[in-house]
Amino acid sequence: MNTTPPTTAFSPQAFSLKGKPAFITGAGSGIGQAIALGFAACGADVACFDRDARAAQATADLVLAARGRAIGLSGDVSSPDSLAEAIQAAANSFGPIRTAVNCAGVAGATAAEDMPADDFRRIVDINLTGVFLSAQAEARMMLAQDGGSIVNIASMSGTIANRGLLQAHYNASKAAVIHLTKSLATEWADRGVRVNSISPGYTLTPMNKRPEVADRLKAYASDTPLGRIAEPEEMVGPAVFLASAAASFVTGADLVVDGGYVCW
Ligand SMILES: NC(=O)c1ccc[n+]([C@@H]2O[C@H](COP(=O)([O-])OP(=O)(O)OC[C@H]3O[C@@H](n4cnc5c(N)ncnc54)[C@H](O)[C@@H]3O)[C@@H](O)[C@H]2O)c1
Questions:
Q1: Whose CA is nearest to atom 42 of ligand 1?
Q2: Domain that holds residue 230
Q3: Extended strands (E) in 51-134
Q4: How many A from CA of 8 to the centre of ligand 1?
């Protein structure tokens, strides 16, 4: 069981993901792609899931080129059937999944008073319901096996309202992911499944090539104590930590990885 305390002194091997097949949503781009490559570098076989089939396969190909083991799987996080099928396909290739990172997400910007109900629902459907459905499908396999670790990608926008960005739907969806994570963590703690979230700050991915963000990146960098925005690779170490045995007593936590942004 994942909840069993360690019986030996700490070893760097605790960070290894060898023998822990991983399922990663949104793996076709940005943070999800960086995490898929990083997990493979730490020894995991990785199932790269994305609604963009070619992007999912391209990430799997990058892992294969680096001599890791990976498959690309296409599907949508708002569909329970699509998730169940993909997780079974991952298990057929590598054995039951032991870790999962839920990165799939979308953003947008509209003034709240003008926001069509369907825009609000679409963001919540992918960013919140999609994370719930992903975690549910992943935990069904982990609970039936030897436990596991789930990492949800939330955002610092779940804690702050970004200055100058009109994204009430996005911010609300991310705040809910942080609390969903705590709720799932407590439900599954005694059955060996840990659930945590990471809240990235501004990160250089295609999501931030949206004009409303791209124009403000310099200002965001100077509003960050570390003086810059993040590279996607800087989300890998935190995700490896939370997924691995090094975090055996960590569940229900939200790890803010923002260069100190929320401190100011
Ligand atoms: N980039 C940032 O500054 C930043 C900051 C905080 C949090 N985040 C969060 O990190 C996560 C990854 O963002 P990113 O910046 O790498 O974005 P990205 O746009 O580069 O990647 C998102 C990926 O998710 C996939 N996706 C979208 N909807 C999907 C769906 N319904 N089903 C399956 N796949 C789907 C896309 O095809 C894409 O490959 C998101 O949840 C985002 O909200 C990003």
A1: 105
A2: 19-258
A3: 70-74, 99-102
A4: 38
